[in-house]
Write a structure and sequence with these properties.
single chain, alpha+beta, Heat Shock Protein 90, globular
Length: 143
């Protein structure tokens, strides 16, 4: 695996045409770095879910990643409505997505739980009416 990488993606709310671009780009970076495929899969799932939450709920956001020999760290900050009740939002199946989002196949209430299941460290903070910050870390074993 190459030593390290860092990058930033700008996300625009409701831009479903570009949905998945940031997480797909991160996946390719990890593959090019030689990260094991099982780890790439976990990172891609978590990044995609976070990216979609930003596109669905926020006006805009930023996804920043850091990859070192020890870990993959992703931080997503958005300018959105915030999460009123984080504990409730972490419940599988709970969703505040409007009908038109559900009709597109999103908003099943599995995004945050899927992120948490696929990462080693999960941190979520939110201010109602201002936005949300999500950070996750996936540890990489030294070979």
């Amino acid at each position: 695996m190459t030593s390290s990488s860092e990058g930033t993606f700008f996300l625009t709310g409701k831009d479903f045409v570009k949905a998945g671009t940031a997480s797909g780009s991160l996946k390719r970076v990890l593959e090019d770095m030689g990260v094991p495929s099982a780890v790439v899969r976990r990172a891609a799932i978590a990044a995609f879910e976070a990216e979609m939450n930003t596109i669905i709920y926020a006006v805009a956001g930023i996804m920043h990643y850091y990859v070192t020999a020890e870990m993959i760290k992703v931080v997503i900050q958005d300018m959105g409505q915030g999460i009123e009740n984080i504990e409730l939002a972490m419940t599988e199946g709970y969703s505040t997505a409007p009908d038109y989002i559900r009709e597109m196949g999103f908003g099943s209430g599995m995004g945050l739980p899927n992120i948490k299941k696929n990462v080693d460290k999960f941190m979520l903070s939110s201010v109602s009416g201002e936005g949300t910050t999500l950070e996750f870390i996936i540890n990489l074993e030294k070979t």
